[in-house]
Amino acid sequence: MVPTVEWKDGAVRLLDQAQLPERVAFLDCRDYRAVARAIKELRVRGAPAIGVTAAMGVALGAQSIQSTDFDVFSKELLEICHALAATRPTAVNLFWAIERMKQTLAACRQLPVEDIKRRLVEESQRILDEDIAMNKTMGRHGAALVKDGQTILTHCNAGALATAGYGTALGVVRAAWEEGKKIKVLADETRPVLQGARLTAWELMQDGIPVTLITDNMAGALMRQGLVHLCIVGADRIAANGDVANKIGTYSVAVLAKAHHIPFYVAAPYSTIDLSTPSGEQIPIEQRQAEEVTSICGKAVVAPAGVSVLNPAFDVTPAEYITAIITERGVFKPGELAGRFRA
Ligand code: MRU
Protein backbone atom coordinates (compact mmCIF):
# COMPACT_ATOMS: atom_id res chain seq x y z
CA MET A 1 0.00 0.00 0.00
CA VAL A 2 1.18 3.52 -0.76
CA PRO A 3 1.49 5.67 2.41
CA THR A 4 -1.62 7.65 3.38
CA VAL A 5 0.45 10.47 4.84
CA GLU A 6 4.17 11.15 5.08
CA TRP A 7 6.65 13.91 5.76
CA LYS A 8 8.52 14.31 2.48
CA ASP A 9 11.13 16.93 1.56
CA GLY A 10 9.80 19.46 4.06
CA ALA A 11 6.15 19.03 2.98
CA VAL A 12 3.23 16.87 4.13
CA ARG A 13 2.48 14.44 1.31
CA LEU A 14 -1.04 13.00 1.27
CA LEU A 15 -2.52 10.30 -0.90
CA ASP A 16 -5.46 12.29 -2.29
CA GLN A 17 -8.39 10.07 -1.25
CA ALA A 18 -10.93 12.32 -2.99
CA GLN A 19 -9.50 11.04 -6.30
CA LEU A 20 -9.63 7.32 -5.45
CA PRO A 21 -10.28 4.89 -7.02
CA GLU A 22 -9.99 6.63 -10.41
CA ARG A 23 -6.50 8.04 -9.82
CA VAL A 24 -3.66 7.45 -7.39
CA ALA A 25 -2.57 11.05 -6.95
CA PHE A 26 -0.62 12.83 -4.23
CA LEU A 27 -1.12 16.21 -2.69
CA ASP A 28 1.97 18.00 -1.37
CA CYS A 29 0.94 20.44 1.35
CA ARG A 30 3.61 23.10 1.79
CA ASP A 31 1.88 25.12 4.51
CA TYR A 32 -0.42 24.27 7.40
CA ARG A 33 -3.42 25.96 5.74
CA ALA A 34 -3.19 23.46 2.87
CA VAL A 35 -3.13 20.65 5.44
CA ALA A 36 -6.25 22.06 7.16
CA ARG A 37 -8.02 22.35 3.80
CA ALA A 38 -7.12 18.76 2.89
CA ILE A 39 -8.62 17.49 6.17
CA LYS A 40 -11.84 19.50 5.67
CA GLU A 41 -12.23 18.32 2.07
CA LEU A 42 -11.72 14.63 2.99
CA ARG A 43 -8.57 14.36 0.87
CA VAL A 44 -7.26 12.65 3.98
CA ARG A 45 -9.88 11.11 6.26
CA GLY A 46 -10.35 8.45 8.91
CA ALA A 47 -9.80 9.28 12.57
CA PRO A 48 -6.18 8.10 13.06
CA ALA A 49 -5.10 9.45 9.66
CA ILE A 50 -6.42 12.93 10.37
CA GLY A 51 -4.69 12.85 13.77
CA VAL A 52 -1.33 12.03 12.18
CA THR A 53 -1.91 14.60 9.42
CA ALA A 54 -2.80 17.34 11.89
CA ALA A 55 0.37 16.58 13.91
CA MET A 56 2.40 16.92 10.71
CA GLY A 57 0.48 20.11 9.93
CA VAL A 58 1.58 21.55 13.29
CA ALA A 59 5.19 20.56 12.55
CA LEU A 60 4.91 22.12 9.08
CA GLY A 61 3.41 25.32 10.47
CA ALA A 62 6.26 25.54 12.98
CA GLN A 63 8.85 25.67 10.17
CA SER A 64 7.32 28.86 8.77
CA ILE A 65 7.40 30.85 12.02
CA GLN A 66 10.10 33.53 11.73
CA SER A 67 10.60 34.50 15.36
CA THR A 68 13.34 32.93 17.46
CA ASP A 69 11.75 34.21 20.66
CA PHE A 70 10.02 31.30 22.45
CA ASP A 71 6.99 33.27 23.59
CA VAL A 72 6.28 34.65 20.12
CA PHE A 73 6.95 31.24 18.54
CA SER A 74 4.71 29.52 21.04
CA LYS A 75 1.84 32.00 20.52
CA GLU A 76 1.98 31.56 16.74
CA LEU A 77 2.18 27.79 17.02
CA LEU A 78 -0.88 27.67 19.27
CA GLU A 79 -2.80 29.66 16.64
CA ILE A 80 -1.80 27.05 14.05
CA CYS A 81 -2.97 24.29 16.43
CA HIS A 82 -6.28 26.11 16.80
CA ALA A 83 -6.77 26.35 13.01
CA LEU A 84 -6.06 22.63 12.55
CA ALA A 85 -8.36 21.69 15.43
CA ALA A 86 -11.21 23.61 13.77
CA THR A 87 -11.27 21.34 10.70
CA ARG A 88 -13.51 18.45 11.82
CA PRO A 89 -15.27 18.03 15.19
CA THR A 90 -16.00 14.33 15.71
CA ALA A 91 -12.80 12.26 15.51
CA VAL A 92 -11.05 12.73 18.84
CA ASN A 93 -7.71 11.55 17.38
CA LEU A 94 -7.39 15.01 15.79
CA PHE A 95 -7.48 16.76 19.18
CA TRP A 96 -5.40 14.04 20.82
CA ALA A 97 -2.59 14.44 18.26
CA ILE A 98 -2.63 18.24 18.45
CA GLU A 99 -2.48 18.00 22.24
CA ARG A 100 0.60 15.78 21.96
CA MET A 101 2.26 18.40 19.77
CA LYS A 102 1.43 21.10 22.34
CA GLN A 103 2.97 18.95 25.05
CA THR A 104 6.13 18.56 22.97
CA LEU A 105 6.30 22.33 22.63
CA ALA A 106 5.92 22.79 26.38
CA ALA A 107 8.56 20.13 27.15
CA CYS A 108 11.09 21.84 24.81
CA ARG A 109 10.66 25.40 26.03
CA GLN A 110 14.32 25.64 27.18
CA LEU A 111 15.65 24.75 23.72
CA PRO A 112 16.47 27.15 20.87
CA VAL A 113 13.52 27.55 18.50
CA GLU A 114 15.41 25.80 15.65
CA ASP A 115 15.73 22.68 17.85
CA ILE A 116 12.06 22.87 18.84
CA LYS A 117 11.11 22.89 15.16
CA ARG A 118 13.10 19.68 14.63
CA ARG A 119 11.59 18.08 17.74
CA LEU A 120 8.08 18.81 16.45
CA VAL A 121 8.81 17.04 13.16
CA GLU A 122 10.23 14.07 15.11
CA GLU A 123 7.17 13.91 17.35
CA SER A 124 4.77 13.89 14.39
CA GLN A 125 6.78 11.05 12.85
CA ARG A 126 6.61 9.18 16.18
CA ILE A 127 2.81 9.55 16.21
CA LEU A 128 2.72 8.08 12.69
CA ASP A 129 5.03 5.15 13.53
CA GLU A 130 3.13 4.37 16.75
CA ASP A 131 -0.16 4.32 14.85
CA ILE A 132 1.06 1.63 12.45
CA ALA A 133 2.52 -0.43 15.31
CA MET A 134 -0.74 -0.21 17.31
CA ASN A 135 -2.76 -1.27 14.30
CA LYS A 136 -0.62 -4.36 13.81
CA THR A 137 -0.97 -5.35 17.47
CA MET A 138 -4.72 -4.65 17.35
CA GLY A 139 -4.94 -6.76 14.21
CA ARG A 140 -3.38 -9.73 16.01
CA HIS A 141 -5.80 -9.43 18.96
CA GLY A 142 -8.77 -9.12 16.63
CA ALA A 143 -7.74 -11.94 14.32
CA ALA A 144 -8.29 -14.38 17.19
CA LEU A 145 -12.03 -13.58 16.92
CA VAL A 146 -12.18 -14.48 13.22
CA LYS A 147 -12.56 -18.09 12.11
CA ASP A 148 -11.38 -19.63 8.86
CA GLY A 149 -14.04 -19.31 6.16
CA GLN A 150 -16.00 -16.48 7.77
CA THR A 151 -17.49 -13.42 6.05
CA ILE A 152 -16.97 -10.06 7.74
CA LEU A 153 -19.20 -7.09 7.06
CA THR A 154 -17.61 -3.66 7.42
CA HIS A 155 -18.92 -0.12 7.05
CA CYS A 156 -17.02 2.93 5.76
CA ASN A 157 -13.25 2.61 5.50
CA ALA A 158 -11.27 1.79 8.63
CA GLY A 159 -8.29 0.56 6.67
CA ALA A 160 -4.74 1.55 5.81
CA LEU A 161 -6.24 4.61 4.13
CA ALA A 162 -7.93 5.74 7.35
CA THR A 163 -4.76 5.39 9.42
CA ALA A 164 -1.01 5.80 8.98
CA GLY A 165 -1.07 2.22 7.64
CA TYR A 166 -2.49 -1.31 8.07
CA GLY A 167 -5.85 -0.12 9.42
CA THR A 168 -8.03 -0.81 12.45
CA ALA A 169 -11.08 -2.85 11.34
CA LEU A 170 -9.27 -3.77 8.13
CA GLY A 171 -6.12 -4.34 10.21
CA VAL A 172 -8.02 -7.20 11.85
CA VAL A 173 -9.02 -8.44 8.38
CA ARG A 174 -5.40 -8.18 7.18
CA ALA A 175 -4.05 -10.01 10.23
CA ALA A 176 -6.58 -12.85 9.84
CA TRP A 177 -5.72 -13.08 6.13
CA GLU A 178 -1.97 -13.11 6.89
CA GLU A 179 -2.63 -16.00 9.32
CA GLY A 180 -3.94 -17.94 6.34
CA LYS A 181 -7.66 -17.75 7.16
CA LYS A 182 -9.79 -17.84 4.02
CA ILE A 183 -12.04 -14.93 4.87
CA LYS A 184 -14.25 -12.68 2.77
CA VAL A 185 -15.27 -9.08 3.31
CA LEU A 186 -18.65 -7.54 2.52
CA ALA A 187 -18.13 -3.79 2.14
CA ASP A 188 -21.09 -1.44 2.63
CA GLU A 189 -20.79 1.26 -0.04
CA THR A 190 -21.33 3.89 2.71
CA ARG A 191 -23.39 6.74 1.31
CA PRO A 192 -23.12 9.65 1.03
CA VAL A 193 -19.38 9.84 0.35
CA LEU A 194 -18.90 6.17 -0.57
CA GLN A 195 -15.82 5.40 1.53
CA GLY A 196 -16.76 1.70 1.34
CA ALA A 197 -17.13 1.57 -2.44
CA ARG A 198 -14.26 3.90 -3.31
CA LEU A 199 -11.74 3.11 -0.58
CA THR A 200 -12.40 -0.19 1.24
CA ALA A 201 -13.02 -2.06 -2.00
CA TRP A 202 -9.93 -0.45 -3.55
CA GLU A 203 -7.51 -1.16 -0.72
CA LEU A 204 -8.64 -4.77 -0.18
CA MET A 205 -8.34 -5.45 -3.91
CA GLN A 206 -4.81 -4.00 -3.83
CA ASP A 207 -3.93 -6.67 -1.24
CA GLY A 208 -5.82 -9.48 -2.99
CA ILE A 209 -8.26 -9.93 -0.07
CA PRO A 210 -11.68 -11.09 -1.35
CA VAL A 211 -14.18 -8.23 -1.12
CA THR A 212 -17.77 -7.95 -2.31
CA LEU A 213 -19.38 -4.53 -2.52
CA ILE A 214 -23.01 -4.05 -1.42
CA THR A 215 -25.24 -1.01 -1.08
CA ASP A 216 -25.99 -0.04 2.51
CA ASN A 217 -29.60 -1.22 2.37
CA MET A 218 -28.58 -4.80 1.51
CA ALA A 219 -26.95 -5.63 4.85
CA GLY A 220 -30.13 -6.73 6.66
CA ALA A 221 -31.27 -9.12 3.95
CA LEU A 222 -27.81 -10.70 3.73
CA MET A 223 -27.66 -11.14 7.50
CA ARG A 224 -31.05 -12.84 7.43
CA GLN A 225 -29.75 -15.26 4.80
CA GLY A 226 -26.85 -16.20 7.10
CA LEU A 227 -24.25 -14.65 4.80
CA VAL A 228 -22.61 -12.45 7.48
CA HIS A 229 -20.69 -14.07 10.34
CA LEU A 230 -19.41 -10.98 12.09
CA CYS A 231 -19.24 -7.19 11.69
CA ILE A 232 -16.10 -5.13 12.36
CA VAL A 233 -16.02 -1.34 12.09
CA GLY A 234 -13.70 1.46 13.19
CA ALA A 235 -14.48 4.43 15.43
CA ASP A 236 -14.08 8.18 15.48
CA ARG A 237 -14.58 8.57 19.19
CA ILE A 238 -15.38 6.15 22.00
CA ALA A 239 -16.98 7.67 25.11
CA ALA A 240 -16.17 6.55 28.66
CA ASN A 241 -19.30 4.34 28.82
CA GLY A 242 -18.33 2.51 25.60
CA ASP A 243 -20.72 4.31 23.22
CA VAL A 244 -19.07 4.61 19.80
CA ALA A 245 -19.28 7.40 17.22
CA ASN A 246 -18.48 6.19 13.72
CA LYS A 247 -19.55 6.83 10.13
CA ILE A 248 -23.26 7.43 9.63
CA GLY A 249 -24.98 4.09 9.12
CA THR A 250 -22.87 2.21 11.67
CA TYR A 251 -25.74 2.31 14.18
CA SER A 252 -28.10 0.68 11.66
CA VAL A 253 -25.58 -2.12 11.06
CA ALA A 254 -25.22 -2.67 14.82
CA VAL A 255 -28.99 -2.89 15.35
CA LEU A 256 -29.31 -5.33 12.46
CA ALA A 257 -26.41 -7.42 13.79
CA LYS A 258 -28.03 -7.65 17.23
CA ALA A 259 -31.39 -8.66 15.69
CA HIS A 260 -29.63 -11.49 13.84
CA HIS A 261 -27.37 -12.55 16.76
CA ILE A 262 -24.24 -11.61 14.80
CA PRO A 263 -21.22 -10.33 16.79
CA PHE A 264 -20.54 -6.62 16.25
CA TYR A 265 -16.95 -5.50 16.96
CA VAL A 266 -15.32 -2.08 16.98
CA ALA A 267 -11.54 -1.84 16.40
CA ALA A 268 -9.78 1.32 17.61
CA PRO A 269 -6.52 2.46 19.24
CA TYR A 270 -6.31 4.29 22.58
CA SER A 271 -6.09 7.63 20.74
CA THR A 272 -9.78 7.15 19.80
CA ILE A 273 -10.91 6.61 23.40
CA ASP A 274 -12.13 9.80 25.03
CA LEU A 275 -12.67 9.24 28.74
CA SER A 276 -13.48 12.93 29.22
CA THR A 277 -16.72 12.41 27.29
CA PRO A 278 -19.07 10.45 29.57
CA SER A 279 -21.39 9.03 26.88
CA GLY A 280 -22.25 9.21 23.19
CA GLU A 281 -24.79 11.95 23.92
CA GLN A 282 -21.97 14.48 24.34
CA ILE A 283 -20.03 13.55 21.17
CA PRO A 284 -20.21 16.41 18.65
CA ILE A 285 -21.53 15.16 15.31
CA GLU A 286 -20.22 16.86 12.18
CA GLN A 287 -22.93 18.12 9.80
CA ARG A 288 -21.70 18.28 6.22
CA GLN A 289 -22.90 20.04 3.09
CA ALA A 290 -26.12 19.05 1.28
CA GLU A 291 -24.31 18.41 -2.03
CA GLU A 292 -22.85 15.20 -0.62
CA VAL A 293 -26.40 13.83 -0.43
CA THR A 294 -27.93 15.41 -3.53
CA SER A 295 -25.16 14.14 -5.81
CA ILE A 296 -22.87 11.14 -6.13
CA CYS A 297 -19.49 12.57 -5.15
CA GLY A 298 -20.32 15.86 -6.88
CA LYS A 299 -20.69 14.09 -10.25
CA ALA A 300 -24.24 12.86 -10.89
CA VAL A 301 -27.05 14.95 -9.41
CA VAL A 302 -29.65 12.62 -7.84
CA ALA A 303 -32.14 15.01 -6.21
CA PRO A 304 -34.20 18.05 -7.20
CA ALA A 305 -32.46 21.40 -6.72
CA GLY A 306 -33.38 23.05 -3.44
CA VAL A 307 -34.62 19.91 -1.65
CA SER A 308 -34.18 19.99 2.12
CA VAL A 309 -31.33 17.67 3.22
CA LEU A 310 -29.90 16.25 6.43
CA ASN A 311 -26.26 15.17 6.36
CA PRO A 312 -24.85 14.10 9.72
CA ALA A 313 -21.46 12.51 8.94
CA PHE A 314 -21.47 10.24 12.00
CA ASP A 315 -23.83 8.42 14.33
CA VAL A 316 -23.52 6.95 17.80
CA THR A 317 -23.87 3.24 18.48
CA PRO A 318 -24.83 2.67 22.13
CA ALA A 319 -22.53 0.31 24.03
CA GLU A 320 -25.29 -2.29 24.42
CA TYR A 321 -25.09 -3.10 20.69
CA ILE A 322 -21.33 -3.69 20.77
CA THR A 323 -20.05 -7.20 21.45
CA ALA A 324 -16.49 -6.03 22.19
CA ILE A 325 -13.93 -3.36 21.40
CA ILE A 326 -10.64 -4.51 19.89
CA THR A 327 -7.67 -2.35 20.96
CA GLU A 328 -3.89 -2.65 20.95
CA ARG A 329 -4.15 -3.62 24.64
CA GLY A 330 -6.56 -6.47 24.03
CA VAL A 331 -10.27 -7.09 23.48
CA PHE A 332 -12.67 -5.59 26.03
CA LYS A 333 -16.39 -5.29 26.68
CA PRO A 334 -17.42 -1.63 26.11
CA GLY A 335 -18.08 -1.21 29.83
CA GLU A 336 -14.54 -2.36 30.71
CA LEU A 337 -12.77 0.31 28.66
CA ALA A 338 -12.72 3.12 31.22
CA GLY A 339 -11.01 0.86 33.78
CA ARG A 340 -8.44 -0.40 31.26
CA PHE A 341 -7.50 2.93 29.73
CA ARG A 342 -7.43 5.24 32.75
CA ALA A 343 -3.99 6.93 32.65
O1 MRU B 1 -15.68 10.94 7.29
P1 MRU B 1 -14.55 9.96 7.41
O2 MRU B 1 -14.25 9.26 6.13
O3 MRU B 1 -13.33 10.60 8.03
O4 MRU B 1 -15.09 8.88 8.44
C1 MRU B 1 -14.26 7.79 8.75
C2 MRU B 1 -14.88 6.81 9.67
O5 MRU B 1 -15.98 6.98 10.13
C3 MRU B 1 -14.03 5.64 10.06
O6 MRU B 1 -14.81 4.50 10.25
C4 MRU B 1 -13.32 5.98 11.39
O7 MRU B 1 -12.65 7.20 11.28
C5 MRU B 1 -12.37 4.92 11.80
S1 MRU B 1 -10.92 4.90 10.81
C6 MRU B 1 -9.83 3.77 11.40
Give a brief rundown of this model:
The chain has 343 residues and is an alpha/beta fold. It has helices at residues 32-40, 47-63, 70-85, 92-107, 113-143, 169-178, 195-206, 219-224, 250-259, 291-294, 337-341, and strands at 5-8, 11-15, 26-29, 151-154, 184-188, 211-214, 230-233, 237-239, 244-247, 264-267, 273-274, 295-296, 300-301, 314-317, 324-327, 330-332. It contains 11 helices and 16 strands.
Roughly how many Å apart are the termini? Answer: 34 Å
Number of strands: 16
- Second CATH tier, the architecture of the largest domain: 3-Layer(aba) Sandwich
Beta-strand residue fraction: 15-25%
Residue-averaged pLDDT, rounded? 97
Elements, N to C (H/E):
EEEHHHHHEHEHEHEEEHEEHEEEEEH
Uncertain regions spanning at least 5 consecutive residues: none
Count of helical stretches: 11
> Which CATH first-tier class of the largest domain would you pick?
Alpha Beta
Which structural class do you get from the secondary structure elements? alpha/beta
Lateral arrangement of strands in the main beta sheet: 6-5-4-7-10-15-16
Question: Structurally, how many domains make up the residues?
Answer: 2
* CATH homologous superfamily (4th level) name of the largest domain: Translation initiation factor eif-2b, domain 2
Radius of gyration: 20 Å
Fraction in helix:
25-40%
Bound molecules: 5-S-methyl-1-O-phosphono-5-thio-D-ribulose
The global form is globular
